[in-house]
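Protein entry
_____________
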Amino acid sequence: MARVGEFELLVILAILRSGEAPYANRIREDLEANANRAVTRGALYRTLDRLKNKGLLVWEDAPSAAPERGGHPMRRLVVTALGREAARDSRDVLLGYFEGVGAALDGK
């Protein structure tokens, strides 16, 4: 089982949520808007490289018609089967820990 940290898990989930637009800028925007995290470009790319090195995601080149890109392809992020497994394993661990602590979390 591949282990991921909290931010790595959030990045994987953001990629999975992104649907047809799994690009780094969109992932960063999602993390900032929905995970209430300030995410620098450097931190995101270091995390993406770490996830790639662990075999949890791959980059795919996609053609770009955006004039500001000068014809350079865009790099799509794709979560691998191992990455999906790591996210499922993390979910299962977290859900297991949340069982039975509702009252304690609510201060009762």
Summary: The mean pLDDT is 90. The two ends are 36 Å apart (CA to CA). The beta strands are 57-62, 74-79. The longest helix spans residues 81-98.
